[in-house]
């Protein structure tokens, strides 16, 4: 077993001259929760899109479990166990909550191209789907269309759907964005629980969440890695404080004072 | 967050509802089952009241619209060139029946294979593009087919293929009588309709719905979405080809009208009018459009104007189409 489940070297993405991500070298240690933070426009989501192959990097190499995945397609890396969530809650709104999870469980069959077969064959996944829903507290919603769920519950459903694939590496894009305090606490507890036995890489704006959850954090600004290490160490780094206070005063209320206090 | 026991509207708060009870018989909900029974009853009763020739034409277009709806209603792909598959299916079936002397079911099957083959090539090219670009590419490719049909000898240009023999079903049952042919066409329509229903309610259909709802998410779950779209495209084009072939055998002629872009427009109209993404919508839509064309024929060119007005009315007032609005009123899935 390798120490690092995901490594990048010189990862760069340019959009017509604008460098969104520049020479990023990430190393995600197996079995940890790794946070990716940085002010708005720092390139965090672009980074995510590159790692999950939703975008092709201009330069650089991405290695997953020692294997070069740079030329792969997004569906292929998902099959290798590297599964992402999205910043905007990504559910299938007209499918029921149960069906949402089942579509992910259905991946186990391989390609579902059997258009001649009744979807009754999918019922064997119902029990497992209900277990996953119970795990994120959505059992009572099972038969409701996913689109009718309140925002926080949609995020929980998204995590359940991601978990259905039993990923080795979960990439969560701002799992607590736009949530109320109670919702945030719920999701934090959930992420901590589901991270058992896997690796999590998360983009997060809320520094309280990052501090509570992440073993290691990487700070990005203007597409570059500014600092990397445990939260306590990184939050004392004067450059990080400057990046946060200097360029993005709107960063998660309450937490920035903390960074400043450490400085 | 609200306490964990709070249920969303429509879900009983007490206890966990049983898993997946909404699937009725063979994937039909109860409302759909009733509608299906009504449709089958109408299929049996109608030829005794209405002109069978008109009904057969209607059923061919209904199947065509159902095939189109599979793509736009359940995958969210607007193909603006479905006339190519319908028209080529029509020509090939006509040629096979008239020149090669094939039995009608084989001729129609060949029409379906032609539609599917064409759909495989065109779909493969078009599916890499999204939205309006997808529609434009399918239209451009269909126009290419139109011009090919104008030029190649086997379509007989402006004359079309005429006097196509109806032949005998399996070489045994003579279809020259209108009523015999009617049962054959009605059976074919019903088979096609049930096939489409099965596709929608299959493990494949479940993935298609997921792709329609949120394609990036489906990709992130490991589905090669382009492949699924292509299979759906081929199925839709194949069934459109079968509908075209059936139309050629029914009407006895295959002409340029079948491959003209106006035919692609007509199938869009039928589907929208009936209700996009509903099982029965395209059938009702086809009945409305073919009915108008037949019974308003005395008004000549005004038919197109009336059709246009109805289309505008539909877009403005009944977005969901006839069946879509009905389903909303009755709060059921149709």
Q: How would you summarize this macromolecular structure in one to three sentences?
A:
The complex is a heterodimer of chains A (263) and B (334). Chain A is α/β, with parallel strands linked by helices and 263 residues long.
How are the secondary structure elements laid out?
The complex is a heterodimer of chains A (263) and B (334).
Chain A: E1 4-15, E2 18-24, E3 27-29, E4 33-37, H1 44-51, E5 59-64, E6 67-68, H2 74-79, E7 82-84, H3 97-105, H4 126-135, H5 151-164, E8 169-173, H6 181-194, E9 199-203, H7 207-213, E10 216-221, E11 224-229, H8 231-234, H9 238-247, H10 255-262
Parallel strand pairs in A: 4-9, 4-10, 7-8, 8-9
Antiparallel strand pairs in A: 1-2, 1-3, 1-5, 5-6, 10-11
Chain B: H1 30-45, H2 52-74, H3 82-98, H4 104-126, H5 131-151, E1 168-169, E2 173-174, H6 178-200, H7 203-213, H8 215-220, H9 225-251, H10 261-274, H11 281-295, H12 302-317, H13 321-330
Antiparallel strand pairs in B: 1-2
Helix pairs in contact in B: 2-6, 2-9, 2-10, 2-11, 3-4, 3-5, 3-9, 4-5, 4-9, 6-9, 7-9, 10-11, 10-13
Q: Can you offer a commentary on this structure?
A:
The complex is a heterodimer of chains A (263) and B (334). The model of chain A is unreliable at 248-263 (pLDDT under 50). Chain A has helices at residues 44-51, 74-79, 97-105, 126-135, 151-164, 181-194, 207-213, 231-234, 238-247, 255-262; strands at 4-15, 18-24, 27-29, 33-37, 59-64, 67-68, 82-84, 169-173, 199-203, 216-221, 224-229. By secondary structure, chain A is an alpha/beta fold. A six-stranded mixed beta sheet of chain A has the order 7-8-9-4-10-11, sandwiched between helices. In chain A, strands 1, 2, 3, 5 and 6 form a five-stranded antiparallel beta sheet that branches. Chain A starts with a strand and ends with a helix. Chain B has a domain at 52-260. Chain B has 13 helices and two strands; from the N terminus they run αααααββαααααααα. In chain B, strands 1-2 form a two-stranded antiparallel ribbon. The interface between A and B is large, with 60 and 46 residues.
């Amino acid at each position: 077993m390798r120490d690092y489940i995901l490594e990048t070297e010189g990862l760069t993405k340019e959009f017509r001259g604008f460098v969104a991500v520049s020479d990023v070298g990430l190393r995600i240690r197996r079995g940890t929760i790794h946070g990716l933070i940085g002010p708005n426009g720092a390139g965090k989501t672009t980074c995510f899109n590159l790692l999950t192959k939703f975008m092709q990097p201009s330069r650089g190499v991405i290695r997953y479990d020692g294997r070069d995945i740079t030329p792969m397609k997004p569906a292929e890396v998902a099959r290798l166990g590297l599964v992402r969530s999205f910043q905007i809650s990504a559910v299938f709104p007209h499918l029921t909550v149960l069906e949402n999870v089942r579509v992910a469980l259905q991946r186990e069959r391989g390609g579902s191209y059997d258009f001649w077969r009744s979807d009754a064959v999918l019922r064997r996944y119902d029990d497992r789907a209900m277990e996953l829903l119970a795990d994120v507290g959505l059992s009572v919603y099972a038969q409701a269309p996913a689109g009718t769920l309140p925002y926080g519950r949609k995020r929980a459903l998204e995590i359940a759907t991601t978990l259905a694939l039993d990923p080795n590496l979960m990439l969560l894009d701002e799992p607590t964005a736009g949530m109320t305090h109670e919702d945030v606490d719920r999701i934090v507890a959930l992420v901590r629980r589901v991270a058992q036995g896997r690796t999590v890489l998360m983009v997060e704006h809320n520094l309280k969440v990052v501090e509570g959850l992440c073993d290691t954090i990487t700070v990005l600004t203007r597409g570059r890695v500014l600092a990397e290490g445990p939260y306590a160490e990184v939050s004392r780094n004067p450059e990080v404080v400057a990046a946060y206070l200097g360029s993005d005063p709107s960063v998660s209320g309450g937490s920035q004072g903390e960074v400043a206090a450490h400085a | 967050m609200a306490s964990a026991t709070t249920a969303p509207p429509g879900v009983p708060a007490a206890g966990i509802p049983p898993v997946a009870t909404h699937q009725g018989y063979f994937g039909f909900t109860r409302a759909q089952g009733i509608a299906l029974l009504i449709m089958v009853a109408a299929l049996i009763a109608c030829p005794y009241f209405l002109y069978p020739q008109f009904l057969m034409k209607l059923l061919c277009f209904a199947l065509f619209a159902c095939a189109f709806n599979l793509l736009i209603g359940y995958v969210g792909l607007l193909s603006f060139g479905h006339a190519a598959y319908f028209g080529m299916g029509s020509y090939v079936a006509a040629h096979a029946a008239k020149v090669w002397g094939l039995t009608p079911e084989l001729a129609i099957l060949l029409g379906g294979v032609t539609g599917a083959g064409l759909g495989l090539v065109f779909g493969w090219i078009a599916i890499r593009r999204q939205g309006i670009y997808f529609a434009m590419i399918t239209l451009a490719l269909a126009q290419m087919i139109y011009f090919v049909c104008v030029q190649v000898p086997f379509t007989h240009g402006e004359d079309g293929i005429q006097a196509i023999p109806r032949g005998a079903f399996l070489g045994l049952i003579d279809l020259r009588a209108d009523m015999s042919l009617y049962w054959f066409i009605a059976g074919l329509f019903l088979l096609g309709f049930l096939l489409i229903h099965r596709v929608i309610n299959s493990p494949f259909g479940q993935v298609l719905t997921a792709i329609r709802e949120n394609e990036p998410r489906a990709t992130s779950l490991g589905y090669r979405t382009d492949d699924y779209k292509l299979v759906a495209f081929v199925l839709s084009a194949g069934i459109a080809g079968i509908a075209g072939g059936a139309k050629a055998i029914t009407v006895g002629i295959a002409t340029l009208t079948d491959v003209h872009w106006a035919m692609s427009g007509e199938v869009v109209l039928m589907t929208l009018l009936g209700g996009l993404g509903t099982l029965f919508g395209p059938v009702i839509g086809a009945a409305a459009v073919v009915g108008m064309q037949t019974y308003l024929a005395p008004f000549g060119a005004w038919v197109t104007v009336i059709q246009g007005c109805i289309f505008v009315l539909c877009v403005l007032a009944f977005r969901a189409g006839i069946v879509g609005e009905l389903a909303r009123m009755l709060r059921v899935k149709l």
